[in-house]
């Protein structure tokens, strides 16, 4: 899971808020007085809308620079609030385009996005390198009358501008700015390649023996996928069955398929996704980031990243990682030993467990240890019931009423829901959010994230609106979406991000919600919310866990076992996350992307210390590590543990 960050990181680093004035046009991307008109927005609108908004912003910005230089008025409203107003139309239109790139991707949208992306980065970079604005902010920083939030905004803006190259001149500045455009292009290409690779792979099975062990819900999904691809008459009972690399298909296959060869084929496909196309992009991205850091006077890109984090230094991140590794690694070794002994005692006849065996045998060990199967839980976690529990929790903790409001806003897909957040006591409308719950591997990227549609703003008189995006199990065979417990916790996690955005008390947009929050602090609200999935009041009082057909609540003994299972294989889970964080930091701190060692060789080197089972020689996990190569987590993945 993650936070989405627009590639149009403007002056204060990725904030997006809705514009107050629309250009007089029929282009839906420029009709910004309401929520996005998703039914009307097409790829053909992107170039005119974004280019037009950029042109207007540039013109208004030049006027602002002149006023700052001539009048000497460096009040908060004359600087920060004027910037917010003039940036808003671009942030809105480009924000919607980037959102659609993640949830409704198409060749036409990619082409339109690519046509204006460089222009967006070029213009927003120009704003962030304005000497007139920088001097005004320096003067404003000395204003003793600023509120604490305003003071933080000014200081954050100064820091962001320094890291955006405001102090650069001549050839260095030209190179730095060209690099920024190239990085945005590479990041988008990385993400598109990963989506394409995930979509391109499928495995169609025709023999019942090949799908032996797969639970009914997974069989139904696999048969429906086969039918969608032209296999007329495909059924859960007789097939054919089509498996893919998106989570609702891939995870059940790895956990339940008894056919080891099918698991191996799926695993190898999964860890080599986008391997050939993204491998060269990784080197290019790392080289450019290293060059950017050098131009700014830093020793590594990781040092640049840490400038805007809570962590005081790269060394502090390493210290935390080493401390956790020392605790977790012995536990992980013991867990693997127990798993191997269990598998051997229950029919596994190999010399050692392979990577495609771990999930399968871990699921069997869990069933043996706790006395229940994951599939038993699914009927008790229908999406609508889970939302009842989640919203009941929000009422109890935060005093808000969340009301389904479908039809009051346009959506990009029929499965998307729209909700309003009201103050329970007064009924005041505080915020809204879209929920896109299901996987659509044909045009929606994997993972789960919270994105900003509209940010809270006193100046623009706007209430916050969030996008909550998951890739959960879709409804199949006339049944509602029956969620795995992992999908339930993921929904709570993303709602935690969303609540931080939506329930903000700060009226100044650049410090409202997630804006201006250090990246290694953003995972706190999300991971906090996960804890409530194990809270009896949340699970039972609002009807979150009840059978979708009978209405019977989840048996209390089963809930008790679920709570016991929470720390199952916690050591292996911990070292996996530590490995990702350490690899991210090494790649951005000490690794030489121009040297002989490949990023994949560094991965194998670190695996000797961080993994109880080494990756495959041809493992290309890094080629799907979108968090750091196509998201906001580069030299920041450690945030999940900070």
Tell me about this structure.
There is one protein chain. The protein has helices spanning 46-71, 76-103, 107-128, 131-141, 148-163, 170-200, 216-228, 247-256, 260-271, 275-295, 301-306, 314-345, 355-370, 374-377, 383-398, 485-502, 523-530, 536-541, 556-564, 570-589, 599-610, 626-629; strands spanning 2-3, 203-205, 241-243, 400-404, 417-423, 429-438, 449-454, 465-472. The protein has a 6-stranded mixed sheet, with helices on both faces. It is of the alpha/beta class and 642 residues long. A hairpin with a 5-residue loop joins strand 5 (417-423) and strand 6 (429-438).
Which descriptors would you attach to this protein?
22 helices; six-stranded mixed sheet; alpha/beta; 642 residues; 53% helix; two-stranded antiparallel sheet
- Count every beta strand, where a strand is a DSSP E run of 2 or more residues: 8
- The ordered string of helix (H) and strand (E) elements is EHHHHHHEHEHHHHHHHHEEEEEHHHHHHH
- What is the overall number of helices? 22
Overall shape:
globular
Tell me the distance between the termini.
Answer: 16 Å
What Rg, in angstroms, do the CA atoms define? Answer: 25 Å
Q: What amount of the residues lies in strands?
A: 5-15%
What structural category characterises the helix and strand content? alpha/beta
Percent helix range: 40-55%
Widest sheet: strand order? 1-7-8-6-5-4
Report the uncertain regions: 5-24
User: Would you tell me the overall average pLDDT?
Assistant: 95
Sheet bearing the most strands, described?
Answer: 6 strands, mixed
């Amino acid at each position: 899971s993650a936070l989405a960050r627009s590639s149009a990181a403007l002056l204060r680093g990725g904030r997006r808020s809705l514009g107050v004035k629309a250009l007089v046009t029929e282009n839906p991307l420029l009709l910004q007085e309401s929520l996005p008109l998703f039914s009307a927005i097409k790829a053909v609108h992107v170039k005119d809308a974004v280019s037009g908004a950029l042109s207007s912003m540039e013109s208004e910005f030049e006027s602002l620079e002149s006023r700052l230089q001539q009048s000497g008025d460096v009040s908060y409203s004359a600087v920060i609030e004027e910037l917010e107003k003039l940036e808003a139309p671009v942030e809105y239109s480009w924000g919607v385009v980037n959102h659609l790139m993640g949830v409704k991707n198409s060749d036409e949208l990619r082409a339109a996005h690519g046509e204006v992306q460089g222009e967006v980065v070029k213009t927003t970079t120009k704003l962030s390198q304005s000497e007139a604005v920088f001097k005004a902010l320096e003067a404003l920083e000395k204003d003793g009358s600023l509120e604490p939030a305003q003071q933080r905004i000014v200081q954050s803006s100064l820091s962001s501008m320094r890291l955006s190259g405001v102090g650069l001149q001549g050839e260095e500045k030209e190179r730095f700015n060209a690099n920024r455009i190239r990085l945005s292009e590479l990041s988008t290409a990385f993400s598109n390649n990963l989506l394409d690779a995930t979509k391109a792979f499928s495995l169609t099975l025709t023999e019942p023996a090949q799908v032996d062990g797969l639970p009914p819900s997974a069989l139904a999904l696999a048969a429906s996928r086969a039918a969608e691809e032209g296999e007329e008459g495909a059924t859960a009972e007789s097939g054919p069955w089509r498996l893919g690399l998106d989570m609702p298909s891939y995870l059940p296959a790895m956990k339940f398929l008894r056919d080891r060869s099918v698991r191996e084929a799926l695993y190898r496909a999964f860890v080599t996704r986008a391997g050939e196309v993204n491998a060269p992009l990784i080197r290019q991205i790392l080289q450019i980031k290293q060059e950017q850091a050098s131009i700014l006077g830093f020793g590594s890109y990781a040092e640049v990243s840490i400038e805007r984090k809570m962590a005081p230094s790269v060394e502090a991140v390493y210290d935390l990682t080493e401390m956790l590794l020392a605790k977790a690694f012995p536990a992980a070794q013991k867990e693997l030993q127990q798993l191997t002994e269990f598998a051997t005692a229950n029919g596994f006849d190999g010399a050692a467990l392979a990577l495609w065996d771990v999930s399968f045998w871990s699921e069997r060990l869990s069933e043996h240890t706790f006395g229940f199967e994951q599939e038993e839980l699914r009927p008790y976690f229908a999406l609508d019931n889970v939302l009842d529990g989640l919203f009941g929790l929000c009422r109890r903790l935060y005093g808000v009423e969340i009301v389904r409001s479908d039809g009051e806003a346009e959506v990009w897909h029929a499965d998307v829901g729209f909700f309003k957040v009201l103050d329970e006591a007064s009924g005041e409308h505080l915020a809204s959010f879209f929920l896109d719950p299901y996987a659509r591997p044909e045009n929606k990227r994997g993972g789960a994230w919270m994105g900003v549609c509209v940010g809270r703003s006193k100046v623009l008189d706007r209430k916050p609106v969030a996008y909550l995006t998951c890739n959960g199990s879709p409804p199949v065979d006339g049944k509602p979406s029956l969620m795995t417990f992992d999908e339930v916790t993921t929904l709570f996690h993303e709602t935690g991000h969303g609540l931080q955005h939506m329930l903000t008390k700060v009226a100044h947009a650049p410090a409202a919600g997630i804006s201006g929050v250090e990246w290694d602090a953003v995972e706190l609200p999300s991971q906090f919310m996960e804890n409530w999935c194990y809270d009896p009041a949340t699970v039972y009082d609002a009807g979150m866990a009840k059978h979708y057909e009978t209405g019977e609540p989840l048996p209390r003994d089963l809930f008790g076992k679920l709570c016991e299972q929470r720390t199952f294989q916690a050591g292996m889970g911990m070292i996996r996350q530590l490995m990702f964080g350490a690899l991210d930091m090494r790649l951005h701190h000490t690794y030489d992307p121009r040297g002989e060692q490949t990023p994949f060789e560094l991965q194998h080197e670190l695996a000797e210390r961080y993994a109880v089972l080494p990756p495959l020689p041809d493992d290309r996990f890094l080629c799907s590590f979108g968090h750091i190569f196509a998201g906001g987590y580069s030299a920041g993945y450690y945030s999940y543990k900070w």
